[in-house]
Amino acid sequence: MWLIDLDGKNYTRYDAPLSHIKLDKPRVIEAPGLSDGITFDTEDVYQAKCVLAELEKDQPKYLAVVANFTALNRSLFYLYDSRGKLIYEEILPEECNASAILPPENSSGRDEILVSGQKTVWRYAMH
Fold first, then answer.
1. HEC string for 51-116
2. Nearest-CA neighbor of 50 among 38, 36, 28, 67?
3. Tens digits of per-residue pLDDT, 4-38?
4. Could you read off the pLDDT of 31-55 as tens digits, one per residue?
5. Which helix (H) or strand (E) holds 35?
6. Residue 68 belongs to what domain range?
7. For labelling alongside 82, which of 18, 30, 40, 63 has CA 20 to 30 A away?
8. Cβ pair 119, 92 in contact under 8 A
9. 20 contacts: CB under 8 Å, gap ≥ 6
10. For 63, what's the count of Cα atoms within 13 Å in the CB-facing half-sphere?
11. 10 contacts: CB under 8 Å, gap ≥ 6
């Protein structure tokens, strides 16, 4: 996974396990002018969305990323530390369209991460 600035010049590359998978059964999509359609035997994530969260008081922020697959109704959640090291990953059972930060409710100084799916909202916190 790549994080690119608005000018497309500066980037950081992150490990993103399971972001490209081989399908057990190839998927065929109808295409104009092609009688057999287009066959895909792999699936990739797209539309990655990210937020920065302060999960440890007075420490650098973490990068939380949610990415949907192109055709599967699943998403991936990744959490990276300030050095770009992957510290957590999870396959979510539905497509997710938004993530947000929930500011600390007390003096812990720790944000929480909300990830919104089609029917579920996941809440992630550092303890």
1. EEECCCCCCCCEEEEEEEECCCCCEEEEEECCCCCEEEEEEECCCEEEEEEECCCCCCCCCEEEEE
2. 67
3. 777 777 677 778 888 777 777 777 777 777 777 77
4. 777 777 777 777 777 878 889 999 9
5. strand 34-53
6. 2-124
7. 18
8. no
9. 42, 43, 44, 45
10. 20
11. 4
Tokens 């497309």: give the residue.
8
Dihedral in degrees, nearest 10, Cα atoms 19, 20, 25, 27: 90
Nearest CA-CA partner of 54 in 2, 103, 20: 103
Distances (CA, A) of 21 to 29, 73, 80, 117: 18, 14, 21, 21
Give me 97's structure tokens: 């369209």
Residue 3 has pLDDT above 90, yes or no: no
Distance CA 62, CA 2 (A): 16
pTM of the model: 0.80
Q: Domain total for the chain?
A: 1
Sheet holding 112-117, edge to edge: 96-102, 112-117, 121-124
